[in-house]
Design a protein that fits this description.
The chain has 13 helices and 4 strands. It has 379 residues and is an alpha+beta fold. The chain has 2 domains: 219 residues, MetI-like (MetI-like fold, Orthogonal Bundle), CATH 1.10.3720; 74 residues, no CATH class. It is elongated and about 85 Å long.
Length: 379
Amino acid sequence: MAQVITRPIPVARALPVTEVRRESYGALVWRKFRKSKIAIVGGLMIIMLLLMAIFADFLSPTDPITPNMQYAYTRPQQLYFISSNGQLHLRPFIFAQKQVLDAKTFLPTWQPDLSHPSPISFFVQGYPYKLLGIFPSRLHLYGVSGGATVFLLGTDKFGRDLWGRICMGAQISLSLSIVATLIIIAVGATIGIISGYFGGWTDNLIQRFIEFLQSFPALPLWMALAAVIPITWSQTLIFITMSAIFALLGWTPLARQIRGRVLALRETDFILAAKEMGASDRRIIFRHLFPNCLSHIIVVMTLTIPSIILSESFLSFLGIGIQEPLVSWGTMMREAQSLQTLSSNPWLMWPAAFIVLAVIGFNFLGDGLRDAVDPYSIV
């Protein structure tokens, strides 16, 4: 009889299961966004300008509103770290400036008085203000003692510190453009979604109205509306009116773009399923369609803000935009209209540099967001 040899059957070892990490859409967008160096640079530029606007009084060593004709058209003062005897100082200092007559042009000019150095102190007490418009404070980032003054970017024709006024102008230029853009987003996105979702006669009526508004040239219409604003209105009312004027024609391109996206989304499975389950039109619009258009809206917002900054600056430069006592970068550029004044005082062009900085920063940020909001693309 043959002997049967039994062998143990080997037990298969289970292969290790690789854990798949699932990232949210926001995490994917952030991971792709931070790979763009241009977008990071643009974001840092915008953050810097926003901090300038928020802490404008804290950053200004002297009152940027009160005139001081004694220092009219003062040249930018240079920071020094080496004294006249060649000694190195870790603490920066400046020299007081004195006004002398130019021997050739017989025009008054400012020259540093090397016999009167003034060290710069940080976190000093100065003119009173309200931090964030709420908390009373007299603390300023830097200043000089002993009755001296420090004007790092020079002064205007009324002797007001240009750096402080640029920081204050950032409050109006940035906040007005952001408020106007938010109005554009609210109106344009809502009307675009309604037009694309309902279609039919609603879509035709809205599109014909948009075409009617787009038939008007934007810049002349803005100029006409801004010119009829009474100068007796309060600052708040002028600010709100200017924001509404810039948003008047700005919402139509966004409405067209959102309508096109909604036309493609309304026939997708999740929208049809929501309808079959009895979801109301309001729920479908605000819980399904609007979130799927949010990425495009964010990109449009970052690209709309710089265009409004340029438009506001242009109107204020012409004298029909923001008016004194409000300060914007455009109103500050109005002083540089005269070539004679500009040739003698070229530092009056500093507000233009900050306009360029803001426009470039928002465009860099918008370009990065445009790529980041589509994290599944190969490029």
